[in-house]
Amino acid sequence: MGFFLGLSGNLHDCAYCITDETGNILVHSELERDIRIKEVPGNSLLYYLQDESTLKYDNNICSISTYLHLDHLNMLNLLKNLQDKWNDDLALKVLQPIKKYQTDIGIEDSLQRLKHILNRKQIDLEIYGHHECHAFEAFARHESNEALIISIDGGGFDLQNNEMFELHTGAWHGKTDSTGKKEVNPILLDKQLSFGSIYNLTTRLLGFSTGYPKGSQAGSVMGMAAWGSSRETLHLFEDNFLWQNTSAKNQKRDEVFKSRRYFEDQVATYLQSGKSENEI
What we know:
This protein is an alpha+beta fold and about 280 residues long. The protein is built from eleven helices and ten strands.
């Protein structure tokens, strides 16, 4: 039986997961849960290699995958180079950056383990879009054979026609085929509308954390919103500063709302028309 190794973010949410061929989760480990520091930066590949409890899976790993980030693109290119010709200097560039955040069982041991995994046989190296992964995860939990999935985020990198671009909001059409295989296809990809960034800046303006080492307290702000008074905070949203510093195109407030209305109108059109994902 083959095993699939999935690697998550190299910035925050450093984690890895191992599944079998039927998709059953065998191991799921998150760095911040292990060391109790919120959103600590980490290298997910090094995190896996330094976990001795996963050694038993090495011989049967048939695929390594990750979602797209600039760091990940470099990481997978390095892995492909390592498969073609082992180079210890190159490997060190993969494993070295965040060594200080993790228990060091010996960098040389990690290098030899990675060398063993990659040299044993040809490994499939897969890369997926950031929001594509959000969409698929949501659909995988869905019991229906078809669904519309909307992902609203601060930002992440996705792929289309082999080109990488930054995406903030998107809609996907999820379908399940006759064999039970699920897939998601893009309907609308909005590169301008970033409500997540606006929400993060609002959190910081109110004096709360949005990342390492306290983690994101945006959820706390959301919970307290019901107790707040718009009279005390509305002026923040009337200032173009908020909007000009949170969007991909440095938009003004009116342009953000225009982008939002366009996205909502297009999704509504899709729902009403029943068109396929390639027709919008």
